């Protein structure tokens, strides 16, 4: 309505990555929830001073709470700021809506999380968002009088234009619902239709929730021709005989890891681990926990002459240089298996 281009940011990113995105955006207004003021202030400190001064911060306060410590931090960080409630009171009743001149003009810009380099932006035009919204309404049968309840971050919803059509949530929430104690479960009065994206939902959670999978679509499938591919026995990880009879599983190697729907560059995490003064070698992989969820795990070999260090020390070291979802949750110390060329065997 005001002619501005929207950009929803990933709240899980660290200050340095957010600073790169803000610099690319040249943001004029930054709407920030009270829970994320600290990371925004840190990211603004990393920007050129002229650019940081141009950004006007709008604080979205906690409901039913007049003053918070976060507001004091905001005031200390920049004087160019407003409270969201005060901004609403400044609205003018005779405001003229900025009409669209070209449906090809951008309505929003989304950014990658920088897992394979600097964050990259993708523009969404008004026409594309409009057409995709209509398609979503048809695809998900969003007819009256249905009610839609959204549990999805805005930066993720923008990818599918769901901010204009509907709201959805990934399978992580489904797993939480399926694993809830029986004392907290409540029967639903009607059938509930779910739109699941990001991560493949666990079959156990689907069975617990009595879900019927009507349609499963996959995207971003890589070309197996250009990848290192083998057919292996899943338990022994040995290559099966090429006799046309022996059954195995197709496995291909890559340098990325998917955790909770977020793509992590293992090379980037390993580079950070190797910056630690006591680390000689490092490998970063995914580890299944008791709920069969992939958790980031680091294998570390220490340099000779250094005493033992704790897992907490490695985790704390990474927290200052990586987004939270990329920080290893488990650290294993010891020798790393390598092949004849010195490459770490990640299996």
UniProtKB/TrEMBL annotation:
<keyword id="KW-0436">Ligase</keyword>
<protein>
    <submittedName>
        <fullName>RPM1-interacting protein 4 family protein</fullName>
    </submittedName>
</protein>
<dbReference type="InterPro" id="IPR000873">
    <property type="entry name" value="AMP-dep_synth/lig_dom"/>
</dbReference>
<dbReference type="InterPro" id="IPR045851">
    <property type="entry name" value="AMP-bd_C_sf"/>
</dbReference>
<dbReference type="InterPro" id="IPR020845">
    <property type="entry name" value="AMP-binding_CS"/>
</dbReference>
<dbReference type="InterPro" id="IPR025110">
    <property type="entry name" value="AMP-bd_C"/>
</dbReference>
<comment type="similarity">
    <text>Belongs to the ATP-dependent AMP-binding enzyme family.</text>
</comment>
<feature type="domain" description="AMP-dependent synthetase/ligase">
    <location>
        <begin position="1"/>
        <end position="138"/>
    </location>
</feature>
<dbReference type="Pfam" id="PF13193">
    <property type="entry name" value="AMP-binding_C"/>
</dbReference>
<dbReference type="InterPro" id="IPR042099">
    <property type="entry name" value="ANL_N_sf"/>
</dbReference>
<feature type="domain" description="AMP-binding enzyme C-terminal">
    <location>
        <begin position="268"/>
        <end position="343"/>
    </location>
</feature>
<dbReference type="Pfam" id="PF00501">
    <property type="entry name" value="AMP-binding"/>
</dbReference>
<dbReference type="GO" id="GO:0016874">
    <property type="term" value="F:ligase activity"/>
</dbReference>
